[in-house]
């Protein structure tokens, strides 16, 4: 059995960021083999992750990056269980590491991003598992990317909500400023689609049936139910689709009218909204 010194423990702690006692235990179990000890710590993190898999993650941190030419945006959200963990340095550092990896590799999916291998030989997934072992909480990654003529972003003041929005026909308008206003609208009003054409058929059918049932409950004649339901569907489009929503900063215009006033024909082609705990 190898003698485990304080220097050995400190070296492993520097390598992994794990606690002193965890490092000492891992080194003892690995008989002084540092690589084996790192594997032991990683497995311990996986055990914690498995054990806490059903826990809720209502806290966390959102960060975003938009390319220099403004045509692509990437948003990373790492959720955890408690507010205190979301504020610690190694948690924030991991979020930034993940975003940097997404930008560097131009990852298109969460799965692709999790598989990215860093210079230290560990994948992003392994880094998340390692931090899970250190902090003892479930961590849950959300990753979205968006491409367009111009992409703007917004992170809410609580750092738990973020939006990417793609604009078209920007012209000479300030895309970042206009996009920020639209993105703030998306955070606040939670539209389900850009416009009515983007609402899936299942949602449309459900809203029509709800409209019919409400009208029927109000005693309306069966012959009028379809027309009444269509009217309620149009109201749904106005309230729940981005371009038709009233602008929260100026209720006298819709988002479509806001965009057109900044540059003729400017519109939104797509958006991504991410919210931790909501």
TrEMBL record:
Compartments annotated for it: namely: Cytoplasm
Key word S-adenosyl-L-methionine present? no
- Provide a Gene Ontology MF annotation, just one: translation elongation factor activity
Question: Pfam families recorded for this chain?
Answer: EF_TS (PF00889)
Every copy of the Translation elongation factor EFTs/EF1B dimerisation domain together lies at 74-277
Q: Which UniProt keywords apply?
A: Cytoplasm, Elongation factor, Protein biosynthesis
HAMAP family per record: EF_Ts
| Entry function | Associates with the EF-Tu.GDP complex and induces the exchange of GDP to GTP. It remains bound to the aminoacyl-tRNA.EF-Tu.GTP complex up to the GTP hydrolysis stage on the ribosome.
Q: Which NCBIfam families match?
A: tsf (TIGR00116)
The similarity annotation says: Belongs to the EF-Ts family.
**Protein's UniProt name:** Elongation factor Ts
The record lists the organism as Hymenobacter negativus
Q: Which gene encodes it?
A: tsf
């Amino acid at each position: 059995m190898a003698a485990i010194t304080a220097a050995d423990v400190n070296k492993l702690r520097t390598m992994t960021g794990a606690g002193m006692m965890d490092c000492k235990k891992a080194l003892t179990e690995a008989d002084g083999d540092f690589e084996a000890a790192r594997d032991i710590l990683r497995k311990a993190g996986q055990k914690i992750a498995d054990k806490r898999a059903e826990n809720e993650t209502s806290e966390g941190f959102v960060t975003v990056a938009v390319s220099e030419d403004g045509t692509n945006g990437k948003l990373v959200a790492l959720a955890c269980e408690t507010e205190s963990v979301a504020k610690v340095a190694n948690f924030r550092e991991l979020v930034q590491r993940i975003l940097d990896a997404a930008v560097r590799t131009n990852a298109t999916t969460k799965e692709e991003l999790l598989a990215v291998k860093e210079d230290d030989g560990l994948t992003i997934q392994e880094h998340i598992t390692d931090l899970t072992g250190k902090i003892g909480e479930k961590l849950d990654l959300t990753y979205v990317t968006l491409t367009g003529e111009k992409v703007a972003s917004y992170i809410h003041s609580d750092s738990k909500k973020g939006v990417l929005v793609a604009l078209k026909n920007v012209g000479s308008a300030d895309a970042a400023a206009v996009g920020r206003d639209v993105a703030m609208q998306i955070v606040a009003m939670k539209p389900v689609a850009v416009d009515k054409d983007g609402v899936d058929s299942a949602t449309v059918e459900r809203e029509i049936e709800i409209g019919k049932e409400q009208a029927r409950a109000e005693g309306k004649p069966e012959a009028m139910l379809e027309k009444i339901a269509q009217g309620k569907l149009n109201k749904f489009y106005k309230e729940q689709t981005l371009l038709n929503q009233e602008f929260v900063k100026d209720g006298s215009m819709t988002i479509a009218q806001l965009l057109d006033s900044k540059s003729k024909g400017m519109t939104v082609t797509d958006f991504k909204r991410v919210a931790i705990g909501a």
